Amino acid sequence: MKTYIYFIRHGIAPFSIEHERAGGTSLSEKGKLDAKKVAELLSNEDIDVIVSSSYFRALETVSPLAELLKKEIIPYVELIERPIVSLNYAVSDEELLIGIEQSFTV
Fold first, then answer.
1. H or E stretch covering 73
2. pTM of the full structure
3. 3-class DSSP assignment, residue 89
């Protein structure tokens, strides 16, 4: 038996950590259209579980798929933005990769 995991990046939406924590900013019209396209593309896959970041824009992105498949969305706080030092700190790709790997180490 094989398990497939589909990663979906959230649709286009203005981003602000403050907005995300206060209920979020709705997806742009393009983001909403893209979310519907993703739902159509994945509608015939045998998807058992839908997991999402707890951020509003991520939940709104997978909502059309969840509705189409009649599945509950399981939100995971652990999937939120993970800044390494700060969101405005420039680092090389190598440094960023090391930081990401370290951020997932328990």
1. strand 73-76
2. 0.69
3. coil
